[in-house]
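Notes from the 1:1 (GR / supervisor)

We went over the backlog. Supervisor wanted to see one worked example end to end before approving the batch request, so GR pasted a single chain during the call. The sequence is below; no edits were made to it. Supervisor asked that the structure be written out right there so they could see what the output format looks like.
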Amino acid sequence: MLNLAKKIEDCSCSLIHTCDIDDFIIEKGANKKIPALLKSYRSQDVVIVSDNNTHPLCGAKIAYELAANGINVTEMVYVRDGILVPDEKAIIQLLEKVTGKTDMIVAVGSGVINDICKYVSFKLKIPYIIAATAPSMDGYASTGSAMIIGNMKVTYSAHVPKAIIGDIDILKDAPFDLIKSGLGDMIGKLSSLNDWMISHIITDEILCDYVYNMTKNAVQKCINDTDGIINRDEDSIRHLMEGLVIVGVAMSYMKNSRPASGSEHHLSHFYEVINIMSGGEYLLHGIDVAYSTAVTNALRHKLAAEDSANFAHSFDSEIWQADIRRIYQDAAEGVITLQQKLGLYKDKYLPRIKERWDAICKVLLEAPSYEETCNLLKRAGLNIEEFYNLYGTEMIKNSIAYAKDLKDRYTVFWLLQDIGLLNNYAADYICQ
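Structure output shown during the call:
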């Protein structure tokens, strides 16, 4: 059983780290403990949230067992044809099931189910627990809820579940793409941690060595166990689920997703938002993140060879706004408003970048090269040609140039923007 501190007060970074999760149950047969767990929380009236995939898998059984233990159960089963979108419609559907007596929401699923339940439970001030059905992403233990609102990918601050239940008997038999997605999400930390270090050097953003290292160690453990994970070995699947939970706790400790989300997530969110608007296809989140890590690492190694004497900040607001409206269409005004509020396009970091260029280059080269990243992906059962074939050259180049505008986080993309090379790097990117 995972034993993670609920509070760390004496961290060298000077922050007080907290995570209010009461129970982590990641073991064989974990779902059988849910009735007793809810009784210990004195829950009497619950809404169980699943979809037409997770309901027959274990949602119906959990509902039956809770009812058999005297707990009043209401079920919300999303009917999905393809990918369930965590949008306004999904929120309303769940709200209609919650009553004034509801004292717990039980989420049965993975990424989207978890995000919807986290968001609604936070808004209604009702606790929730998550019975995970796949080791597919790192958001189980985070305070962030990733939603699609007004065609924008927005991560809302919410709260953590009271408990995370990971039944190995369920997790090991998850669809193979979901297992690859979870491993891909962990591989993506090789990019996000690098971005965090870059931002620390350039913007003086707080970097906590404790959180950085707990994330890095969890990632390395999963990478070392790649073969076992792909072969659905029970201990290896437990290691993956524990790693994803540890990363989620790391985000809770920092009160943001910085340890786990950087430029690779910006790309992933771009492909999701653009394809939802256009009705196009997009990959599972963790798989997108993994492929996007290869792209961002390619940019890092290319950038580390640049001469800082040639750097020059350049930004034309009118051209940028026209490009944003062309790329983001219905979501454009939200993107423009966000960046105008943040002021990241202001020329404020260039002198510091030039002064600290040697240190920045050292960090950039700590990330695996494009070739090394692709080899990691191959071991994880991921062929980057899938990524190139699905999105195509134009979308990938647009993502490099404009994905950063969806978010408020300093990454290698903003570094490239600050030194005047982002558009050149996007235009010149070759699908390797």
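Supervisor's comment: Residues 7-182 form a domain with the Rossmann fold fold (CATH 3.40.50.1970).
Batch request approved.
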